[in-house]
Amino acid sequence: MNIQFDALPLISDRMTGIGWCEAGQTTAMARLHPEDKFMYNFFSRKDDHIKLERLAPFLADIKPNIAHFSILIYRALSTFIPLPYNLFFGNNADVTHFFNYIAPPFVHGKTVITVHDMVYKTFPETVKLRTKLMLDMGLKQSMKRADIIVTDSEFSKSEIVKYFPQHKKKIRVVPCGVDLKKFRPCEDSEKIQQVKKSLGINGEYFLYLGTIEPRKNLERLIMAYYVLAKKLKNPPKLVLAGGKGWLYDSIFRRVKELKLTKQVIFTEYVPSEDITALMCGALAFVFPSVYEGFGMPPLEAMACGVPVLCSDCASLPEVTGDCAVICDAYSVKSIAKGLYKLYSDEKLRKDLSMKGLQRARLFSWEKSAEKLYNIYKEII
User: Fold this and answer.
1) In a shared domain, residues 42 and 162
2) Residues with Cβ < 8 Å from 16, sequence gap 6 or more?
3) Residue 183 located in a structural domain
């Protein structure tokens, strides 16, 4: 097969979960199937070398395929005029996969899109206006164009069917994976201390890792931490690691209102090479999000042997199983209770650590890639 992937999620200056999902699935698939031809398609009007540098970690078995044209102009034009994608990327593909919701018109061969969640429908107030407009204008048409719609969880499938029931037969669930070589228990205490020092962290800490935005439920987490901190003489710090997303001002304001500026640490974006050590140094990983299509960070934490607290919402129980402390996302009291449970019960932390390690092994990128590859074979 000649399989082509839209590389846009891989060439942004800061990769998000969508990019890491594409990287995991595509590189594993290319390793498993050297008999096939794999390409990364992307538009580039200038600075090809910067985009190729960003793609470099993923190019061992996949070749780049560059169209020298502006992606912004192409997107703007193809929203109103059906400008053929195959004018830029040719007629050789058997399958082209778009990992970020939107498929352009006139793609050669079969078209696959990944729709990770329906947050723009369920919680539109938590989505950037630009993203919402793009999905409102483009997703309906993209789903019509797609031969198959891939999503990350049974929960996300049910959400897509709720809003787009006409496409139910096209939807296939392919769970994400976790890089078990990267995310594993870290025995290098010096590396952990080095990363902690670089981020201004002293002593024990609870860790959240993800975008700083409303649907991650960080205001309630901060309020729950405040309840816990009042109980304890020397509470662990709360580290909120990740880049700023959308409508984050109220999250920072809440910390100031509760006078927690010395106990709550915002690290901004954490380099990929520091994430494992940051996770492994944590007392527990906390992720009380109200909406996730899959929820990779808790799975990565489990792969590191770190006990997890997560909410009972969306796909999170599907991912964590019985290997996490589950709380009510909408109850500050429930989140605080979960934090105290993890802080005070060492045996529970050890049990969750062992169970989490075992569960994480069920979610390899190889398994995810093979499931996706079989879908390509099915439609061809």
Assistant:
1) yes
2) 9, 211
3) no
Mean residue pLDDT across the chain:
95
- Cβ contact 280:192 at 8 Å: yes
> Using one digit for the tens of pLDDT, what is the confidence trace for 107-145?
999 999 999 999 999 989 888 888 898 899 899 999 999
pLDDT at 81 over 90: no
Q: Which H or E element spans position 49?
A: helix 48-55
Mark whether 101 and 214 lie in a shared domain.
Answer: no
Tokens of 267: 């690290």
Judge if 342 and 201 occupy the same domain.
Answer: yes
Q: Which residues contact 374 (CB under 8 A, 6 or more apart)?
A: none
Answer yes or no: is pLDDT of 245 > 80.
Answer: no
pLDDT tops 90 at residue 100: yes
What's the CA dihedral at 164, 112, 11, 177 to 10 degrees? 80
Q: What is the pLDDT of residues 318-374, one digit of tens each?
A: 999 999 999 999 999 999 999 999 999 999 999 999 999 999 999 999 999 999 999
- Are 161 and 56 in the same domain? yes
- Total count of domains within the chain: 2
Angle at 128 between CA 70 and CA 172, to 5 degrees: 80
Q: What is the pTM of this model?
A: 0.91
Verify that 220 and 74 share a domain, yes or no: no
Long-range contacts for 105-112 (Cβ within 8 Å, ≥24 apart)? 105/78, 105/145, 106/82, 107/145, 109/2, 110/147, 110/148, 110/376, 110/379, 110/380, 111/145, 111/146, 111/147, 112/146, 112/147, 112/148, 112/149, 112/150, 112/375, 112/376, 112/379
Q: What is the CATH number of the domain that holds 24?
A: 3.40.50.2000
Same domain, 195 and 343: yes
Whole-angstrom distance, CA of residue 187 vs CA of residue 219: 33
Confidence of residue 213 (pLDDT cuts 50, 70, 90): confident
Q: Confirm whether 212 is domain-assigned.
A: yes
In angstroms, the CA 270 to CA 150 distance is 29
The answer to whether residues 320 and 358 touch, using CB atoms and an 8 Å cutoff, is no
CB 113 within 8 A of CB 146: yes
Residue 264 identity: V
What local confidence, expressed as pLDDT, does residue 88 receive? Answer: 96
Percentage, residues of the chain above pLDDT 90: 86
Q: How many residues does the chain have?
A: 380
